[in-house]
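One thing: could you explain this record?
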Amino acid sequence: MSLRKKGPKIMGDFEFSDLNLHQQQEIVKAVSKGATRRDIMTWMMAAGATATTGGAIFSSASAVWASTPKRGGRLVCAGDQHGPADTLDPILCTASVDYWRGRMFYGKLVRLKADLSWEPELAEEVLVNADATKWTFKIRKGVEFHNGHTLNADDVIYTLSRHLGPDTKSIGKSQMDMVKDLKKINEHEVEVNLETPNADLVNSLGTFHFNVLQDGTEDFSTANGTGPYRCKEFKPGVRTVGTPYENCWHGPGYLDEMEHFGIGDPVARLNAFMAGDVDMMVNLPGKAVKEVEAAAGKEVWSVESGRYTSIVAHQGVSPSNNRDLVRAMQLCMDRTRVVKGELKGLGSVGNDQPINKAYFDFSPDIPQRPMDLDKAKYHFQKSGIGSTTIPIIAAEVSQAATFQCLALQREAKKIGMNIDVQKVTTDGYWGAVWMQGSPFNVTTWNMRPTANIMMTLAYKSDSNWNETFWKSEKFDKTLVEVRGVTDAAKRKQMYHDLQMDIHENGGSITPAHLNYTDARASHVKGITMVPLNNWGGAEAPPYIYRDDA
C-alpha cells in the first residue's frame, strides 16, 4: 500500500484525509467487515505509518462507516393534508404532500441547496449569456426513467413546454412567461431563449413544479420519473408507497419502502408520532416542541424560513375588495401574540407582504404595521360595513392558520367588527376552498428561492396562484424589469417598491413567518435543511435512511 503525504509532515505522520479515495474506501470496507484497531494499525505500520497514526486512521474509518447511510427498512411519513386533488403531475402540485412525492419519483434539471444556491442534477452543466436571455442546459448522459427510457433533450423540451402557452394549467406558468422558444441543439443539449432577462430562471427550475417527465407523458395515475423510488402505490387522499429504483443514476433510495399519507388533525398526527405509528410528521405544534424534545427517540426538525401564514382578502369580490375594511383588519391583528403565543417563538412577525429577512432582496425600510385599534376603528367606520358578518374560512393548513383568525376575531370585536371564523377540515381544502371565490380564507406559502419568484407566483396578475386576485400593471412591469437589473442601488429600490406596494395595496393580512418545524424519530437519518418546504424542503427522499443502531 503506497501512502501519499501533503505538506511538510514527517514520515509516518498521516491522517485519513491524506489517503486517496480508493485507499479510504478499502479501509472503510475492512472496518465494515470486522477489522479491528490492531488489524488496521498493523496494516498501516507495514506501509510506513506510526502506531499512533494507525490508530487514528482506524478511528476515522470507523466514524466514516458509522455515518454511512444504511440500506433497508421502512419509514412511514405523515403529512398534514391530503384529498382527491393529490396529484403526481408536477405542473399541478399545490401541497407539501405533492412535493414530497415528487422528490421520491422525479428529478429536476438542478437542485436547490440549504443556502438556496443551486447545483446541477439532470443538467450536468448550465450556461447563461451576459444579459440572462439565453440559457443552455447540457443534459446528463445515461440517466434512465423508471420504464427504461434514456433521458434526452426531447424529454426536457416536453417538460418545459408544458408550462408555456395561454392554455397551460401549470402552477409555474408565471415563472416561464418570458420564454420565447426552446431549441434542441443535440440529443443532450437544450437552449432556452427569453424575451426579457431573467437571472432567476435556473432557481425556478429547482422548484417543485419542474420535475422532468418523459416526452409525451399524459397518464399520471402513476409516476415515471428518474427519481430514487418507483411508485408502488398511489391513491389520492389515501396514501403513496415507493420502493427503490435500482437503476437511478445517483443510486436507489436507501429504504426498502417509504409510505406517505396525510393526517389532517394536528392532535391526531402528533399522537400517531408519539406512539411510534409514524416515523416523521410535519408541522409540529409549538406547544408540543418541549414534549418531543423530552421524549426518548424523538427529535424536532426545524428550519428557519420565509414561509408564512396569511388571511387572503379576495380583491375581486365584496366585501374583501373594500380597502378600508382590509386596512382595519390588518390593524387589528395581534402579530406578537401569533408568534410568541401560538408559534412559541419559532417564527417572526409578518408585515402584510411575503418577503422577510430570509430573502436576499428583503427591504428592511418598510415600517412594521402595529396593532392599532384606534386607527382600525377609523378605517372600519369608513368602510361602511357596520354589523354585517364577515366570514373567514379557516383550516389548519399550517400552524397558526386558524389561530390567526381567532386572534383577529377577538381584537376586531373591540371595534364593533363582526368576524365569523368558519372552521373546515384540511382534507381537500386546496381544491374546494382556496381560490374558489370566498371573500376571506386562510392560506400558507412555502418560501421560494428568490423574492422575485415568490412575488411572481403569488401576486403577478396572470399567475395561476394569484390568490388575492390583485391586479396592478405597475407592479407587473417592475417585477419583470428588475429581473435584468444589475445596478445594486436600483435593484434595491425596485424590490423595496414591490414589497411596499403589496404592503400598502395588496389583499394579504400576514401576521407571521414560520419556521418549518417538523418532528422525526431518532432513527430517521440523512435529513436535509433546505428552507422551502416541510421536511427540509422536501429534498430528503434521495438521502434519507433508517438507522436503528
